[in-house]
Structures are given as structure tokens and as C-alpha cells.
Amino acid sequence: MAACSIEDVLAKVEKDEAEILKNITVHKELELEFDIGNLAAFDKNPADVGLFRKHKKEEFLRSLARDNTQLLINEMWKLPTERVQEAVVAKLPEPHTRLPREKPLPKPRPPTKWEEFAKLKGIPKKKKTNLVWDDVHKEWRRRWGYKRAKDDTKDWLIEVPESADPNEDQFARRLKAKNERVAKNELNRLKNIARGQKVSVQVPPKDQSKAELGKAMQLARISTASVGKFQDKLPKEKPTRTVGKKRSFQPLIGDFNMEKQRQLDLLKVMENKKPRMNVTRAVNRQMREEDAEAARHKKEGRRGGKGGKKKGRGGGGKGRGGPKSKKHHGK
């Protein structure tokens, strides 16, 4: 083992300390602006164009990011620190730089129907405590959830009311009432959401006819991705008829003569300067306008107080403006 003097050891330690100090020391002409609350540093020093061109771009940017990060870490070590479970932590100050949000601020939740009523009547909101006293177990228990107070689902014996059927299962009745309350609360919640979004909600009536139930079943059947093609049929279910008109498309490859004739017909329509007019539709429109004009003249004549029958279209005779003229109208 070679002998080592104390001077050599001290020189090596000083060299290592100098190397470490050199790594953590960064010189900048302009000091960086720090926002320790956001763990951000802003470098206003101009970039050295010569070094940027001389070295590779990635190496220059990596070196610049390393120096700025080192300065940010040096600034963080100036904060008061404490040890928490073999880790040194520092409490960051409040940030002073306003950062832009990635998404817009969430809109406030619209008030429910009860909240609007309570605000109108001036009913204050009371916050219920989580713990209540249970007289059966003589201890404080949760108001809701597991092992809650006054939990009637654990009863092994239920008293039958005088007005109830003695043969009715009271446990099933209690479970049914609970499910109805849960469904009612869920319906009210959905109504509040729809009212906040200004969407109408249609609730089916309690007593539905056979036709309404069949229509609802048909809509539920065709609401799948396969439009009900792979749905299992019920026993004695009749085949459903296709409702509506099915779209038909011309084949992409087929009779070229037919395609040529369609294109020629389209060119004839485009080249024809005279517009194509539906004579029946035009005649019906003219007759409706004449009837409306006759009714307007007749109404004005009544307002003027002029008695007797009038000649022309506005009178009550057998002309076109009279009541018998409707027999001559088309559809």
C-alpha cells in the first residue's frame, strides 16, 4: 500500500470542493427574476449567437437550461428548511406570477328547485352534523353509511301495522319503499341538471296503454349499434314492420347508358333558359291569394257599416269569394 501524505489528501479535498463549487456557481450578467412559489425563473440575458453557431443547438440549449436550473435550485436552498422523515423540505412562498389557465373557469352550478324556494322564503341553510346519538346502542354513530344510527335494515322483527295486510311481507315492502325513494331522488337530480342546461325532460306516465308500451319497447330494441338486428326476441313476439322509408342509392358500377342518360337530362335542365313551372301549384296559389283578398274586402266592408250585399268578389253571392267557391278548389 503506497504511503499518502496529509498534504496530498488536503490538496485532493480542496480540488474536489473547488470542482463542486464550480459546478454550482453560474455567472450571469443580469440576475434572473425568480418566482419560487411557481418554481419559475426568468432569464433576460441575451443569448450568445457565437456559441449558438459554434456548438450544436441541442448542446447549447441543454447547457443554458442546466445553468438556469442550477440558479433556481440555489435560490430554493436559501429558504428555511426542515427535516421530515429523512427528507429535507422547504416551505415555498406565495406565487406572484399569474399563470394562464389551460381551461376556462368552471361555471357556477345552477340552483336546485329547493334552493330557489329556500332563497325566496328566506330559509337559512343548516349544516347537519355527521354524528348522531343512537338510543339503541347508547353511542354516537354516523348519520349515513355503514354502521349508521337508527339502522332499521338490521331488524329481524317488524311490527305489522293495523291498516296493512297481515299476509304481506313487511321486509319486501320496506325494501320497495327504499328503492322508490332512491329512484325519486335520482329523477329529481336529473331534472335539476336538465333545468340548469335548459333541456326539457319527458317523464312517461304511470299508466301506459298497450300501444305506448309497444312503441317504447320498439324504440329500446332499435337503439343498439346493430339497430336491433342481434337482439333476442320475446316468446310469441310478432315480427316488427319497418317504419319509414329506406334510402336507396344508385350503384357505383353498373349500366353506363343509364348514367349517360341522367347526365344528359341534367345538362338539358341546366341549359334550358325557361324555368320549369308547376301549373297546378301556381293555379292553387293564385286562387288562395284571390280568396284572401276577397275575405279582406268583406271584412273591411263589415267594419264600415255598409249594409246589403256587395257585388264582386267580396260579396256573399256565388262568386269565387263566396262560401260555395270552396267546392271548386283543388287540394
UniProtKB/TrEMBL annotation:
Compositional bias annotation for Basic and acidic residues: 286-295
Annotated GO biological processes are: endonucleolytic cleavage in ITS1 to separate SSU-rRNA from 5.8S rRNA and LSU-rRNA from tricistronic rRNA transcript (SSU-rRNA, 5.8S rRNA, LSU-rRNA); ribosomal large subunit biogenesis
Q: Which InterPro entries match?
A: Ribosom_reg
The segment annotated Disordered runs over 279-331
Enumerate the subcellular locations listed in this protein's record, separating them with semicolons: Nucleus
| A GO CC term attached to the entry | preribosome, large subunit precursor
Q: Please indicate if the UniProt record lists Transmembrane helix as a keyword.
A: no
Q: Which UniProt keywords apply?
A: Nucleus, Ribosome biogenesis
> Is-annotated flag, keyword Metal-binding?
no
Which residues does UniProt call coiled coil?
none
One of its Pfam families is RRS1
Q: Which domain of life is it from?
A: Eukaryota
Name the family the entry cites.
Answer: Belongs to the RRS1 family.
Task: List the PANTHER family hit by this protein, alphabetically.
Answer: RIBOSOME BIOGENESIS REGULATORY PROTEIN, RIBOSOME BIOGENESIS REGULATORY PROTEIN HOMOLOG
Q: What is this protein called?
A: Ribosome biogenesis regulatory protein
